[in-house]
Amino acid sequence: MSEESFSEISLPAKLILFDGVCVLCNGSMQFIMKHERAAEFRFAAVQSDAGRRALAAHGQPTEDWDSVVVVDGSAVYLKSDAAIRIARDLRAPWSWLRVLAILPRGLRDWFYDRVARNRYRLFGRYDHCRIPTAEERGRFLQ
User: Fold this and answer.
1) What is the gyration radius of the CA atoms in the chain, in angstroms?
2) Is 16 in contact with 43 (CB distance < 8 Å)?
3) In the beta sheet, which residues pair with residue 18?
4) 80 and 114 in contact (C-beta within 8 Å)?
5) DSSP 8-state code for residue 90
6) What is the pLDDT along the chain (142 residues), one digit of tens a residue?
């Protein structure tokens, strides 16, 4: 699909773009699907065509990505802001994690960057992006 034709496609109102080969990131997506108050988020791996097109559509780099990206309407959230934005839509007690927003962004992102930089070493890496199950398929961009 060309960039031009993709711009004509409407993206979901709530979208999470994640590292599809990262064990931690995939586990996080499973956690979100299990603990969301409502099944509103849609997902795409940044390595997928849909993920790269969504990144480009929101002015984000499409290579060497090390942050989860949350798109909520026209707003784009990165790093710790993205994690806090996700927490807002989870059921309690997980939604209470949004209180971390009171910490300075620099401190939150410093911690986020340390985990992101070492995520493969600490948690592992898949050889390829995980295929969503039949139940999950409707939640993932194709």
Assistant:
1) 15
2) yes
3) 45
4) no
5) B
6) 344 444 445 677 899 999 888 999 999 999 999 999 998 999 998 888 888 888 888 888 888 778 899 988 888 999 999 999 999 999 999 999 999 999 999 999 999 999 999 998 999 988 877 777 777 778 888 7
Structure tokens belonging to residue 101: 């927003």
Distance CA 93, CA 85 (A): 15
In sequence order, which ranges of the chain are alpha helices (DSSP H)? Answer: 3-7, 23-35, 49-57, 79-88, 105-117, 119-123
Calpha distance 77→70 (Å, rounded) = 5
Do the beta carbons of residue 32 and residue 90 sit within 8 Å?
yes
Tokens of 125: 């890496």
| Residue owning tokens 């992102």 | 109
pTM here is: 0.85
Bridge partners, residue 75, by sequence: 72
How is residue 29 written in tokens? 């997506």
Interior/surface letters 9-37, b for 16+ CB within 10 angstroms, e for the rest: eebbebbbbbbbbbbbbbebbeebeebbe
Residue 33 phi, psi dihedral angles, 5° rounding: -60, -35
